[in-house]
Amino acid sequence: MAFSVTLSTLTSRVRGLSDTVYAPTPTDATIEGMLNKALRDLYAKLCEGAGEFLSENVSLITSSGVSVYTLPSDFWQLRGVTWERDVQFHAPLYRFESRDRAKLAGRQWGSWAKYRLADVALGGAPSIELLPAPDNTYTIRVDYIPDPPTISSTIPLTCAPGMDDYIVLDAVCAILAAEETDVSVWEAKRAEALRTCMLSVSLRDENRNATISDGDADEIGSWVTW
After folding, report:
1. Is 213 inside any structural domain?
2. pLDDT per residue over 134-185, tens digit each?
3. Exposure string over 149-171, b if 16+ CB within 10 A, otherwise e
């Protein structure tokens, strides 16, 4: 069950475990930075193992002849793109890469509907480019993972079991390592907290087998045209 925890509570826990309750350093601001860094690192780990539980989606409405569409400002990682032509026809779109020029040679690769991300890696405004430009008005569903959360004096952290333990222990490891103290015990505790986090967000429906459901589909055969 999710619960909320404040920055002051987390900071107090870090100071208690690192024996820095009365120490002038690290400052509270430094600990806040450590906690947010640990939270970003944890978020990335959770996305690898349980991204579908963290994902959101947005529907983009295309215009004939227009290729580039703006993604939400909180876009962080892409989960998938689906073309919803009508109620009955939904098809996944594939990311276009240069290697596909050779793969689709002889298949008129230019006519296959595909996409590529623009300006994401360079820190620009996230957008998606549809290739070739759609020839009509369609709905394009984009499943994505939003930016990692942050915690501050005014924004508490809503977390699953183990998340607060992980970021506290990560900050403790950083503080003690800077003092050249052996942190192996704390690293082991942090690893255990990570296992708890992964378990709490990755429980699947036991009625479904842990198998790949679309493994018999030919990737090229699944490409579609507008």
Report:
1. no
2. 999 999 999 999 999 999 999 999 988 899 999 999 999 999 999 999 999 9
3. eebeeeebbebbebbbbbbbbbb
What is the CA angle 49-51-53, rounded to 5? 110
Please tell me the predicted confidence (pLDDT) of residue 19. Answer: 96
Which whole-number Å values give the CA distances from 206 to 203, 210, 213, in the listed order? Answer: 8, 9, 15
| Cα Rg of the chain, angstroms | 22
Residue 186 tokens, joined: 């704390």
Q: Within this chain, do residues 23 and 42 fall inside the same structural domain, yes or no?
A: yes
Average pLDDT, the chain: 85
For residue 215, tell me if it sits in a domain: no
pLDDT at 91 over 80: yes
Total domains present in the chain = 2
The reported pTM is 0.77
Q: Which domain holds residue 92?
A: 52-147
Structure tokens given for 21: 């309750």
Look at residue 109 and tell me if it is in a domain. Answer: yes
Helix (H) or strand (E) holding 167: helix 163-178
Q: Name the strand (E) or helix (H) holding 139.
A: strand 139-146
The answer to whether residue 207 sits within a structural domain is no
